[in-house]
Amino acid sequence: MSLTYAIADLHGRFDLLESAVSEIRKHAGATPFKIITMGDYVDRGPESREIIEFLMAWQHVDSSLVCLKGNHEEMMVETIRKPLDPDWWIANGGDATLISYGHPRKGSYQPDIVPADHLAWLDALPLMHVDEYRVFVHAGVVGWKGQAIVIPGRSYSGKSTLVAELVRAGATYYSDEYAVLDSRGRVHPFDKPLELRDEGQFRQTKVTAAELGGHSGTKPLPVGLVLMTQFKSGARWRPRKLTAGKGVLEMLFNTVSARRSPEKALQTLQRVTAQADVLKGVRGNATEVVPAVLRRVEGRLRLRS
Q: 242: Cβ–Cβ under 8 A, 6 or more apart, which residues?
């Protein structure tokens, strides 16, 4: 038997990483274990560079550490490499990351202060991990009437906004970051605060399900609906239903690291799409889409009863 531990939301706090690793080693004792760090290593806190250097060095010598990419790593790499206007990253804590690399607190923006090998490591981090027991897919998840609604997508596709509106409408919050799927295709809670932005704003705000008037799930759910969707201003929600096979391919496309363990990933995703409807289409305002999404789940339940 082996144990799996997850560490999330370090955000430049190297002390939290050290503390978590210490507690994990105490808890595991002599039992073999794996640690999955769930991204968001950088921004806000003062020690982003220290965290990245520690994880890079540890992963180089120890295969029991799995590092996934979070929203903030994606934001950092996209901003520096493309390059993009740095304001969206700076407003979300990127200034603290740059300072951890020795960037002056005042003066002109100097992105090249971040080492190229650090950017390459961050850029190559997978969005999904597959192990003997779980598949981690980059997605938002809510529960409705005992069925999970899974919304795969990369950062800034609008999935967090859609998850928030579903929770406001009464859905149970499961995750804003990862769909944690077991070998039966059920989704488990990964309860961390949502990160939301007002339209036209760069800065993200952490919001709990309770602050949205909702609550978080505690038990695994079968997946009833998978939404492959992206926000497009003014778009009408007119999705098309995908076959189970195309649904698997779409989910793999959004989680490209599945090629590291394709057989396990395919088996799990096939179980998901065999029991769920998979819809694909662009959407406009989330508040206009939510009623149709919930009706779709309820319609499936009526057909099965």
A: 228, 250, 278, 279, 280
User: Please, which residues have CB within 8 angstroms of residue 237's CB and are 6 or more apart in sequence?
Assistant: 281, 283, 284, 288, 289, 292
Q: Say if residue 200's pLDDT is above 60.
A: no
Superfamily the domain 134-304 falls into? P-loop containing nucleotide triphosphate hydrolases (3.40.50.300)
Cβ-contact 277, 296 below 8 angstroms: yes
The CA dihedral of 114, 201, 215, 177, to the nearest 10 degrees, is: -30
pLDDT for 260 equals 54
- Give the tens place of pLDDT for each residue, 230-265: 888 899 999 999 999 998 888 876 554 444 566 778
- 10 Å Cβ neighbour count for 89? 24
Write out the two tokens for 74. 């994606």
CA–CA separation, 57 and 69 (whole Å): 17
Furthest CA-CA distance within the chain? 65
Place of tokens 């002390």: 15
Domain boundaries defined on the chain: 3-125, 134-304
Strand segments (E) across the chain: 3-7, 33-37, 65-67, 129-130, 134-144, 147-152, 172-175, 178-182, 186-188, 194-196, 205-207, 221-231, 240-242, 277-283
d(CA 294, CA 296): 5
* Cβ(92)–Cβ(79) below 8 Å: no
CATH superfamily of 3-125: Metallo-dependent phosphatases (3.60.21.10)
**Distance between CA atoms of 102 and 237, rounded to whole angstroms?**
47
Which tens digit of pLDDT belongs to each residue from 32-42? Answer: 999 999 899 99
